Amino acid sequence: NGISTFKAADNVREIIAITPVEQILFETDAPYLTPIPYRGHKNEPKYLPFIAEHVALVKNVPLETLLPQVWKNSVDLFFAGA
Asked: Which residues form a coiled coil (predicted)?
């Protein structure tokens, strides 16, 4: 989420770094907690690509690897047992 982009959020980035990719989902906290550099604007889902890039950077994994796994995680969560 946007908090992970804040300068003082080292603890959040540490958690992202150690969390297995198979346990990661993306969310916005909209309309609050807009990521840097968009602070001051209303948070919206349109910032999710920026969050994804940031998480990939923190985890040191290619975005092309991260995105399909996060999609699978979302489908598994929201359609479990369907």
From this structure: none
